[in-house]
Amino acid sequence: MSELIKKNIEDIKNKINILCNKHNRNTSDIELIAVSKFHEANKIQEAYLNGLAHFGENYIQEWQKKSDLLKPNLPDLKWHIIGHLQNNKAKFINDNVHCLQSLDSLSLAKEIENKSQLNSKLNILVQLQIDINDKNKSGIQIEKTNELLDFISQSKKLLLKGFMGIGPAEIEHNKRKDLYYTFVENSKKLWNVFYNNPQNQKPIISLGMSSDYELAIECGSTMLRMGTAIFGDRNKS
Question: What is the pLDDT of residues 49-85, one digit of tens each?
């Protein structure tokens, strides 16, 4: 298993290099998140030992178990919560979370502010809706971000680092491409409005998974969330 994960990581990094050269992107601008949902802790450790530091989990309970298990030996492993977070789970967010990528409502932001266990500011990506016709994905509509961003700007616990999006499962390639380019442009516009004078800071744009990361790189993603391509098929039992 360790050799397979090692080879998968090497293949992905090589492919990212090729794609960055093709699309005039800097490889150093692309962060790879290993989505470890439903994968055992030993696989996470193997991926970490083969050069990955960032891992994404969808479910709070699963993340808690893995975090507690791996923290003694891998203290600098960086956890990202990438799945939809229910308001009543905000109380479980603590300093072991490196980044919450799925902040999608003002009510959730307020719950984190009031009930989380954070002692320092939490890196936040606001999850934007990519396709208004895709009812199966979470995300706040671009037009409704003002209140949320205003709250983050005054928050003592939240630090905006960028934006996240999840593309529709099935859609024609050119339509997906248009949606992704629009998402990236909207993310940059919101970032500049939020910070007013960004001083060369650039937003994290978390877009692209195992099935669409090539297009995501072309469209301007700076963070890829990949699970199957790294770990293989998930054990959902």
Answer: 999 999 999 999 999 999 999 999 998 999 999 999 9
Helix then strand then coil, in percent of the chain rounded to 5, is: 45, 20, 40
115, exposed or middle or buried, with CB in 10 Å at 0-12, 13-18, 19+?
middle
Region 2-230: CATH code: 3.20.20.10
Number of H helices, E strands in the chain: 8, 8
pLDDT, tens digit (0-9, with 9 covering 90-100), for 21-58: 999 999 999 999 999 999 999 999 999 999 999 999 99
- The model's pLDDT over 135-146, given as tens digits with 9 standing for 90+, comes to 667 899 999 999
| DSSP tag of 49 | H
Question: CA-to-CA distance for 120 and 76, rounded, in angstroms?
Answer: 16
Q: CA distances (Å), 64 to each of 41, 131, 226, in order?
A: 12, 31, 20
> In terms of DSSP H, where are the helices of 40-145?
41-49, 60-70, 106-115
Angle between helices 106-115 and 146-154 (to 10 degrees): 20
* φ/ψ bin of 162: left (φ > 0), alpha (ψ from -120 to 50), beta (otherwise): left
Written as six digits, the tokens of 127 are 């999850």
Q: Which amino acid is at 90?
A: A
CA–CA distance, 11 with 113 (Å, rounded to integer): 40
Domain boundaries, the chain: 2-230
Tell me how far apart the alpha carbons of residues 175 and 132 are, in angstroms, rounded to a whole number. 13
Residue in 217, 110, 98 with CA at minimum distance from that of residue 161: 98
